[in-house]
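Entry 14: structure prediction run for Ribosomal RNA small subunit methyltransferase G. Input pasted below.
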Amino acid sequence: MEDVEGSVPVPAVAARVFGDGLPGAERFAALLERFGVERGLIGPREVERLWDRHLLNSAVIGERIPAGATVVDIGSGAGFPGIPLALARPDLTLTLVEPMARRVDWLGEVIEDLGLAIKVLRGRAEERAVRAELEPADVVTSRAVAPLGRLAGWSLPLLREGGMMLALKGASAQEEIARDEAAVARAGGGTPKVSECGVGVLETPTTVVIVERIRARKSAQEKRRRNAAAVRPKRAE
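Run finished. Output tokens:
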């Protein structure tokens, strides 16, 4: 990409959040400022809020991710939370999953420009072909992708047992949990919990819904086999 220089001030706290990855974060912000609106990645009003609302908001979820974890970010869009997370946590192994071709192109360009070791996979998390490409992950992240129940159905099958789904949510997090907790359980998840990331660091901490994968979701075919076995009469001795 061409040389660009951002005009949006870099918050002082960014150095604390990104550490050695701050130059990359500044470059990413400048690229979004220059190309994000014209390429339909962010709205015009988001330019002035790139740091607080997008980069820092995404990066601080690294607080909830173990060292050296494998992470799949679904519905990455312009690169959130995956790109800031990779810049703040270079120890992570990241794969970005995004269905739209123009956004996949953008992600590939940014990754090459920033020199990040990240894989981009085009498709939707619920597609069989996408799942076949991915090893069971330690963590699946998402931001503004879908309601919690649907999101659990897409995210939890990508996790190893004991892995975590981290969904960035807003003020409606508790309402979503109350509404969708049964759907999360059917998808193989434990009790959803709300957590805040960046407390004492960001003026407005990031709200995250955390769900542990406690069991594998059984396929319809497997359920039919189990039901058939249960009702099959025993052979006489």
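Notes: The chain has one domain: 14-231. Will compare against the previous run tomorrow.
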